[in-house]
Design a protein that fits this description.
single chain; 229 residues; alpha+beta; two-stranded antiparallel sheet; 5 helices; elongated
């Protein structure tokens, strides 16, 4: 089982950061985690039940102490089957607000070393209902919920940008639907009109600067989209 935070998305965010230099993605805070945790992205992991004490510790560290909310879910995983202790855990807090009838809540990933838990900086996450246009004649539109982490982008702006670009179908022959897969980390680009997006296997750049054209091109517009290698 791949952890819910999706470590591949974290690695993609790291690559996107190097690609764009000034890209601000809060997922980078997880760089303090162990190298072993990062290498687990492509390996199978195994669910582990946490003790009540460990659950209370993670709830306090991630949710209660900083944000005054309880924990909603803890997905604890180990690198080995039948392990006595978890190696890492994805912690999801209870919602603290709503945006467009969707919950806003904090998430964080924690790693366990030498019997002690340490957690990366919590990030805001929300969900967006998307409708992707049919990609071939005779097909139906695809409806799907996408989990996004706005990062340094205002949540309302992030949701609006994702909803807009999801309707575009393709960018330079590449499917936007395939690119937008949970979880998508977002951050402001090197210019104020740019938003960088790093999903599971794709990086995108969206621009809110849209030149006036006779065909009234869609805005915001995708100006870069590439698979992660």
């Amino acid at each position: 089982m791949i952890p819910s935070l999706n470590l591949r998305a974290i690695l993609a965010a790291h690559k996107a950061h190097r690609r764009f230099g000034m890209l601000i993605l809060t997922a980078m805070c997880l760089a303090t985690m162990t190298i072993q945790t990062a290498q687990a992205a492509d390996n199978q992991t195994f669910p582990v039940s946490l003790s009540r004490t460990e659950r209370l510790v993670l709830e306090q560290v991630v949710c209660a102490k900083k944000f005054g909310v309880g924990v909603a879910e803890i997905d604890a995983q180990a690198f080995e089957a039948n392990a006595a202790n978890a190696n890492f855990a994805d912690v999801t807090c209870r919602p603290h607000a709503q945006l467009e009838n969707k919950p806003l809540y904090y998430v964080a990933q924690c790693a366990r070393e030498a019997g002690q838990w340490s957690c990366g900086q919590a990030e805001v996450e929300t969900r967006v209902d998307l409708i992707f246009p049919a990609q071939q004649k005779g097909e139906q539109a695809e409806q799907r919920e996408l989990r996004i982490r706005p990062g340094s982008v205002a949540p309302a702006v992030a949701v609006n940008a994702i909803k807009k670009i999801s309707t575009y179908g393709y960018y330079q022959g590449q499917s936007v639907s395939k690119a937008l897969q949970s979880v998508c980390n977002m951050g402001l680009g090197e210019k104020p009109d740019l938003i960088e997006i790093a999903c599971q296997r794709w990086s995108l750049t969206v621009s809110f600067w849209c030149p006036a054209t006779p065909d009234k091109a869609a805005c915001p517009r995708i100006i870069f989209m590439t698979p992660q290698t």
